[in-house]
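Translate sequence into structure tokens.
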Amino acid sequence: MPGEVCVCRGGDAVLADRADAGVVRHGDVVAKAHAVETDPAQLAVRLDVAARMPGVLLAPSAPRATRLHGRLVTFWPYGTPVDRDDPDSAPWEAAGALLARLHAAPLPRPLPPMRGPAKAARAVARLRAVGPHPAAPPVLRAWAALPAWARDEAPAPGPHALCHGDLHLGQLVRGPDGHWLLIDVDDLGAGDPAWDLARPAAWFACGLLAPEEWARFLDAYRRAGGPAVPGDGGDPWPALDVPARALTVQTAALAIAKAVAADRPLDEVEQSLVDACDRMGAIAARPPELAPEATK
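Result follows.
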């Protein structure tokens, strides 16, 4: 009512302000404005999936999105995010176990495709849009070497599972009961579950994630029965190779685009991603008899 003072706990805060999403906290409620091009029917399906998976996905506070100023807005309870200033406490085991439970869940019908490959394709389009850059050619060569499905040019091969589509530690929060939960359903859908393991796999392959942390994540996923990789300790890389390469390209493409926008050189981490793309492109360009598989 006019004149009343809000006594919500937690205050107001802008949690994200990007072209594709805006996230604002007011007390214990978080409002997310989704991208303008968001499909209302697909978002409704994703919200329903989140509401039906307690203990895995954070459930929305309201069952349907609201349209406000031309954007679809959804409402969620506030959860405590991962502490970026304390990397040793990163919940890799929780991330692996939650993903395994998500992937093992029955596949709802109808369910839109997981949008991971579409995000990778958008990142490459953004790289191309910034114009020539000395780091761009190896990234584009690595992109061209990927199969069509990883470039969002064909359906992903089966069997499909329920996938998050954009897994990273920023997609975990502690819920009201203190347990970790996955958030952000914008890319949720049916697809190759290996995609959800691809970002930490790519970081590990590029030397950006310590072997112990990668092992914690992968072992937790296997212990929880995740279907994306062999559960008997077998080599996970035949399943992870293509998604990990795609995520490396995506991350490198975005890094270059952001560096151009800020008119600055690539930093050490960003350059390591470009270097990884260069190695991937060089391997893909080898004659078959010189490829690593030919020596096994």
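Note: Residues 160 and 191 are 5 Å apart (CA to CA).
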